[in-house]
Specification:
- With about 475 residues, the chain is mainly alpha-helical.
- Among the domains are: about 170 residues, no CATH class; about 140 residues, Cytochrome c-like domain (Cytochrome Bc1 Complex, Chain D, domain 2), CATH 1.10.760.10.
- The strands form three sheets. The protein has a two-stranded antiparallel ribbon with strand order 1-2. The protein has a two-stranded antiparallel sheet with strand order 3-4.
- Helix 9 crosses helix 13, helix 11 crosses helix 13 and helix 16 crosses helix 19.
- It starts with a helix and ends in a 10-residue tail after the last helix.
- The structure holds heme C (HEC) (3 copies).
């Protein structure tokens, strides 16, 4: 049985026409992209949020505990907590091209929060994007994903928020978008275009584990909110693996590129072993890579708290998305194979011998990068990511790479791996041309095969970054 999105597809010409009308009607030229969690600290690692469990819990009520867990999976705390504020009390400003949307207080306070919500109100807010008083929510709240959630899970979440979250009486500033976006009623059209308000239906031909993974990724995990590209009106282009190859195909979030979580023609995270994907979501680092940008907060506040079984289910599901029918890998090779072969590549040998002639960018690499990432580009396990075979280095969109080199980054600090090992910022000492050269070198060496980065691309990213902190210059 197919989800109604198939029907939705049939309505597509109609929908496209309505979409176009909406665009023209609003005089809307830019994309409604939902910049996530923009708290001004662009580039800097997000501080760990207060634990979601900062609450009085007498005897554990299984329903409440299940809700607590689901709140972690859905990462409600990251969006509904202001920097330094009480958990779930709202007030985090989220930038969109239409203005700033401020998250609301979802603690059980009767006036400032959702204490007066009935379970039905709560379910409607979560899955249809309508608040208790009937006003429409902006889709900066991921209700189009949460619509997949089962009745039992919504009930558990409700129990948790009502019984175990501490009420906070403060009211965050109201969202005040300029006209016409202030007309929340417009969301009726948006929902008509993009909201598929149906629960997840298990696919009988797939295993229980696969279905659990699909449910978590498409639903509460809302992975596609960052990893799936959006249309001009800000709807994700695909909500499940059955909606085509745009699902989890990679997208820009706050100037960071959220990598594809599916098979593509490039080295991809889904080609890691299942255990490596689990480890990445638990510890924020593996032999291949380490989390950075918005994924740091996802790992710290959400995935590290998930059970190993759920993480494995997620990995198994992701590894099936877009898998080549023949089982044969496409593109230059898998991350593991490329990394294993890296030390024997011509570039590695030349760098070891200090020969940089004819290798543009290699001198910049030797002087600035090889101490950590090594001449072989193989890095050190769980400390300095391998650049050989790395899905980030080989990504179609080099935004993350440029941003990392210019602004630096720190890994998540997790229970498993508390040390937030950092990559220093080079923006203060390397020119646009040097950054372009060294990244182009990395994208073509050790078996990597990706397009060169241009100085103009680097200049673009540099303009968007905050001025470097003086401490960056060591
Ligand atoms: C990606 C960010 C994000 C995540 C994750 C998120 N929310 Fe929200 N939520 C928002 C924003 C922003 C609003 C306010 C939208 C508006 O004013 O139109 C909101 C509004 C709400 C509302 C409406 C409250 C009211 O009366 O105004 C409820 C209820 C809610 N969220 C519950 C949740 C729960 C429960 C979770 C976790 C299961 C969650 N949210 C996860 C961003 C998020
Ligand atoms: C707030 C936005 C956001 C959400 C939500 C999100 N991610 Fe990410 N994710 C990113 C960004 C940005 C990156 C790129 C940074 C990196 O590779 O560390 C990334 C990277 C990853 C990577 C590493 C990919 C690679 O090629 O190295 C994996 C695996 C991943 N995410 C899994 C998930 C899963 C599973 C979910 C849902 C449970 C999820 N992400 C939800 C933003 C997000
Ligand atoms: C002091 C050690 C150090 C140096 C020097 C260094 N890096 Fe890094 N690099 C790191 C660490 C640690 C990370 C992981 C950061 C994170 O996940 O937040 C990283 C991450 C990266 C990544 C992303 C890989 C991934 O999958 O996470 C790239 C690309 C990269 N570095 C390139 C470079 C380049 C190019 C240079 C030289 C201009 C350089 N690095 C210099 C330590 C270093």
């Amino acid at each position: 049985m197919r989800r109604p999105l198939a029907n939705a597809r049939k309505r597509m010409p109609l929908r496209a026409a309505a979409g176009a009308a909406l665009l023209v009607g609003l005089g809307l030229a830019s994309a409604w992209t939902f910049a996530q969690r923009t708290d001004g600290a662009a580039g800097a690692p997000a501080p760990a949020q207060p634990p979601a469990a900062a609450t009085p819990t007498p005897a554990a009520d299984p329903l409440v505990e299940r809700g607590r867990y689901l709140a972690r999976v859905a990462d409600c705390v990251s969006c509904h907590t202001a920097p330094g504020g009480a958990p779930f009390a709202g007030g985090l400003p989220m930038k969109t091209p239409f203005g700033t949307i401020v998250s609301t207080n979802i603690t059980p306070d009767k006036d400032a929060g959702i204490g007066a919500y009935t379970q039905a109100d709560f379910a409607r807010a979560l899955r249809q994007g309508v608040a208790a008083d009937g006003h429409h929510l902006y889709p900066a709240m991921p209700y189009p994903s949460f619509a997949r959630a089962s009745d039992e899970d919504v009930q558990a979440l409700y129990a948790y928020f009502q019984k175990a979250v501490k009420p906070v009486a403060t009211r965050p500033p109201a969202t005040d978008l300029p006209f016409p976006f202030s007309m929340r009623g417009l969301m009726v059209f948006w929902n008509w275009l993009y909201l598929d308000d149906t629960r997840y239906t298990p696919q009988p031909q797939q295993s229980a584990e696969w279905n659990r993974g699909a449910y978590l990724v498409q639903g509460f995990g809302h992975c596609g909110d960052c990893h799936t590209p959006r249309s001009r009106l800000g709807g994700v282009k695909a909500g499940s693996e059955r909606d085509g190859d745009q699902f989890l195909a990679g997208a820009l979030v706050d100037g960071w590129y959220a990598q594809p979580l599916r098979h593509t023609d490039r080295p991809s995270a889904v080609q890691w072993s299942t255990q490596d994907i689990v480890e990445y979501l638990q510890a924020g680092r593996t032999a291949h890579t380490a989390a950075f940008g918005p994924m740091v907060q996802v790992v710290e506040n959400s995935t590290q708290h998930m059970t190993a079984e759920d993480l494995k289910a997620i990995a198994v599901y992701l590894q099936s998305v877009g898998a080549p029918a023949s089982g044969a890998a496409t593109g230059p090779g898998t991350p593991s194979a490329l990394r294993a072969a890296a030390a024997d590549t011509p570039e590695a040998r030349k760098l070891r011998d200090g020969q940089v002639d004819g290798l543009p960018g290699s001198m910049v690499y030797l002087n600035n990068c090889s101490a950590c990432h090594r001449s072989s580009g193989a890095g050190w396990d769980n400390t300095f990511p391998a650049l050989a075979g790395n899905s980030v280095v080989n990504a179609r969109d080099p935004s993350s790479l440029i941003r990392l080199v210019l602004g630096g980054s720190a890994m998540p600090s997790t229970e498993r791996s508390p040390a937030a090992i950092a990559m220093p910022a080079f923006g203060w000492r390397l020119s646009d041309a040097e950054v372009a050269e060294v990244l182009s070198f990395a994208r073509r060496s050790w078996g990597n095969r990706a397009d060169a980065v241009t100085a103009a691309q680097v200049a673009d990213v540099r303009r968007q970054l905050p001025a470097p902190a003086p401490t960056a210059a060591r």
